[in-house]
Amino acid sequence: MLHEKIIEKYYALLCERDLNGLLTIFSVEATVEHPIFGTMAIEGFLRKLLDCAKSHEQLSITNFFTCETQPERVAVFMMAKFTATDNTKFIENAVHIFDFTQENLLKKIIVVIDTFPFREQYYSGPRKSDSI
Description:
The protein has about 130 residues and is α+β, with helices and mostly antiparallel strands. It has one domain (about 1-125): Roll (Nuclear Transport Factor 2, Chain: A). Helices cover about 25% and strands about 45% of the residues. It has helices at about 1-15, 20-25, 40-50, 120, and strands spanning about 25-35, 40, 55-65, 75-85, 90-100, 105-115. It has a six-stranded mixed sheet with strand order 2-1-6-5-4-3, covered by helices on one side. It starts with a helix and ends in a 10-residue tail after the last helix. Mean pLDDT is about 85; it is low at about 125-130.
């Protein structure tokens, strides 16, 4: 239950665009694996996310998934409504997989989304496939 509250806080702070508040719930070595941005340290990822999205209007959790054998991991099926800096509006369904430290700080997020519908509009930088 504590992990669920921390995840809810993550989404609330993201909607508030509170970078400093967000950083308080992550370990210093935290990372994010994202299908568009690749693997990044948490602060760089959050700055990138806040720079690319003008606002997050709604982040709704549909389900939490936990596992007895990995209590430090929680998966979330969620829906996000956000506006990019060019005022394009997006709605995405996603799975976010959160890993926690023993101190109940977030140490990793794995983002699972279908990037095809908005990849070109949302991110114009080099793609992971461009470097192969």
